[in-house]
Write a structure and sequence with these properties.
globular; 6 strands; 36% strand; alpha+beta
Length: 155
C-alpha cells in the first residue's frame, strides 16, 4: 500500500534530482503516514499534484471519511507541490492548513488535486480540492508552506 511506482514527474525534475543521487519518486511520496492511509500520488509537478486515498480504513465512527484523513491527503499533495516549486535547494514546511468539509464519503476512493494559489521565494500556497468517485466535492483545503534552505549534504 502507498507505493509510488507510477507517478508522472516532469523530466527536468527527474534529471535535477538524479544528478544529486536522489530517488525523486521516494522523496516526493506520501510518507509513512500517507502510506498507512493508502495515499497514492498519481501525478506531480509544481503546477498540479494529483493523489487518491481509499475511504475504507480512513473513517470516523459514523462510517464517513474522517476529516483528519482529508487533511492528510490535502497536506500531502500541497507539500509535494511546494517541494517541487522550491526545487532541490529548498525544503517545504507546512505552516497553515485549513479544510472545509462539504459532504461525507462512505466508500470508494477520493481524489485530491492541488493547484498553486501563490508560489513565491519563501512561501507557497496550494488549493486542494478533494472529490468522490462521482466527482462531488468532499473537501476544499488550502495549505501554505514555508520554503527553507535545504541543509547542506556532507560529502
Amino acid at each position: 500500500m502507498g507505493e509510488q511506482q507510477h507517478v508522472k514527474f516532469p523530466q527536468e525534475v527527474i534529471d535535477e534530482y538524479a544528478a544529486l543521487g536522489v530517488d525523486v519518486v521516494a522523496m516526493f511520496s506520501a510518507g509513512h503516514l500517507g502510506n498507512r492511509m493508502g495515499v497514492q500520488i498519481v501525478e506531480a509537478s509544481a503546477d498540479r499534484v494529483v493523489g487518491t486515498m481509499p475511504v475504507e480504513g480512513n473513517t470516523q465512527p459514523y462510517g464517513l471519511l474522517h476529516g483528519g484523513a482529508s487533511a492528510v491527503l490535502a497536506e500531502t499533495l500541497g507539500s509535494v507541490g511546494s517541494m517541487l516549486h522550491g526545487g532541490s535547494t529548498k525544503i517545504a514546511v507546512g505552516v497553515d492548513l485549513n479544510c472545509t468539509h462539504h459532504r461525507g464519503a462512505r466508500s470508494g476512493l477520493v481524489t485530491g488535486v492541488a493547484t498553486p494559489v501563490h508560489r513565491g521565494r519563501s512561501t507557497a500556497t496550494y488549493e486542494i480540492v478533494i472529490t468522490d468517485e462521482n466527482d462531488k466535492r468532499v473537501c476544499t483545503a488550502r495549505l501554505t508552506c514555508l520554503l527553507r534552505d535545504a541543509p547542506a549534504t556532507a560529502g
